[in-house]
Write a structure and sequence with these properties.
Layout: E1 2-7, E2 12-17, H1 22-27, E3 33-38, E4 44-48, E5 51-55, E6 59-63, E7 69-71, E8 80-85, H2 96-99, H3 102-106, E9 114-116, H4 119-136, H5 143-166, H6 173-189, H7 196-202, H8 207-217, H9 222-240, H10 245-251, H11 257-268, H12 272-278
Antiparallel strand pairs: 1-2, 2-8, 3-6, 3-8, 4-5, 4-7, 6-9
C-alpha cells in the first residue's frame, strides 16, 4: 500500500506506505521527515548515517531529511508503516509552537529516538492511521487540511511519548522546553556557533543556567551536544560526498585543517581518512 498527497503550489507531499511499497517509497522521499513504525513480529535492521539500528516490534523511529537511511536486510513484505512529509506540506519549524517536537523527535541530542508503543497506544495509532487512509482516498476541497490535521495529531501523540520516555520525568515543563530549544538552536547554528555561551546569548539565558538544567536532565552536557552535531555532520560528509578533509573542515567552520583532524580524531579515535575507508560500505 502506498498513498500520497501532492501539493503542487508548494511542492509539498505526504506519503503513507507499508508492505512491499515501503522500501520504494523510502528511496523516493529522501528530502522528507520520516516515521518508521514496526508493527510486525520481526525486527527491522537499518543503517542510519553508518550506524546500525535494530527497530524492534512495536517500536517507532523518527528520522530527518538529513539522514542517509538504507534497509540492511531483505524482507518479502516488511510489516512497517512508513510516514513521510516534506516542508512544503508541513513545516516543523513554522508550526513548532503547535507540536513542540522539533527538538525532541527530529533535531534533538538523540538523533535516532526510538519510541516504545504499548497496547493502548498501538490501538490509538491504528485508529488514527485508518482515518488517514480514508482521507488519502477522499478527493475534495477539504482533503489537504484534513490530512495536515491528522498528521499534526500523529506528531503530537508521538511527541508526548517522547517526553515521557526520553526525558527526565521530574524536569519541569519550562526547563524541558529550554532543553528542546537548545537542541533546535544547535541544529540551526552548529557550523558557526561552537560554545555554550553563544547559544545562551541567542536564548537570552546564562551559560550556567543551561548547563545546570542539562545536568538535571542527566543526559549529555550542552557542549557535548554541540560537538556531537559537528561530528555527525563530518561523518555524513565523509561518507556521502567526495570532499576532502580540508574542504569538510572549512565547511564546518575550522579555519585550520589540522584543527578539524584533531577534533575528529579526539571524538572518533581515528582520523577522517581512516573513518572514510573503514565505513565506505555505507556510502551510496
Amino acid at each position: 500500500m502506498h498513498k500520497y498527497f501532492n501539493l503542487e503550489s508548494l511542492e509539498g507531499s505526504f506519503h503513507l506506505a507499508d508492505g512491499n511499497e515501503f522500501e520504494k517509497t523510502l528511496k523516493d522521499t529522501e528530502n522528507h521527515l520520516k516515521f518508521f513504525w514496526n508493527f510486525g513480529a520481526v525486527s527491522l535492521k537499518l543503517a542510519i548515517d553508518g550506524q546500525q539500528i535494530l527497530l524492534q516490534p512495536n517500536q517507532l523511529l523518527s528520522c530527518t531529511y538529513l539522514q542517509k537511511i538504507t534497509v540492511l536486510e531483505e524482507h518479502n513484505q516488511p510489516e512497517i508503516l512508513f510516514l513521510a512529509f516534506n516542508r512544503g506540506f508541513y513545516c516543523i519549524h513554522t508550526y513548532d509552537s503547535e507540536v513542540s517536537c522539533s527538538g525532541l523527535l527530529f533535531f534533538g541530542s538523540n538523533y535516532n529516538p526510538i519510541i516504545q508503543l504499548d497496547e493502548a497506544e498501538i490501538l490509538r495509532l491504528r485508529t488514527l492511521i485508518s482515518v488517514l487512509q480514508e482521507e488519502f482516498d477522499t478527493r475534495d476541497q477539504n482533503q489537504e487540511e484534513m490530512l495536515r490535521l491528522l498528521l499534526k495529531r500523529f506528531i503530537i501523540r508521538i511527541t508526548r511519548l517522547a517526553r515521557k520516555q526520553l526525558f527526565n520525568k521530574k524536569l519541569p515543563e519550562k526547563e524541558l522546553e529550554l532543553v528542546r530549544q537548545f537542541n533546535v538552536m544547535v541544529e540551526e547554528n552548529f557550523k558557526t556557533h561552537r560554545q555554550v555561551a553563544d547559544y545562551a546569548a541567542l536564548m537570552n539565558r546564562s551559560p550556567k543556567t543551561i548547563t545546570n538544567i542539562f545536568a538535571q536532565q542527566g543526559d549529555k552536557r550542552p557542549l557535548e551536544i554541540i560537538h556531537d552535531r559537528l561530528i555527525l555532520e563530518a561523518k555524513r560528509l565523509l561518507l556521502y560526498t567526495d570532499r576532502s578533509s580540508k574542504e569538510i573542515g572549512w565547511e564546518l567552520g575550522f579555519e585550520d585543517p589540522s584543527l578539524f583532524n584533531r577534533f575528529f580524531k579526539t571524538h572518533m579515535k581515528i582520523p577522517p581518512r581512516e573513518f572514510r575507508e573503514k565505513y565506505a560500505q555505507y556510502s551510496f
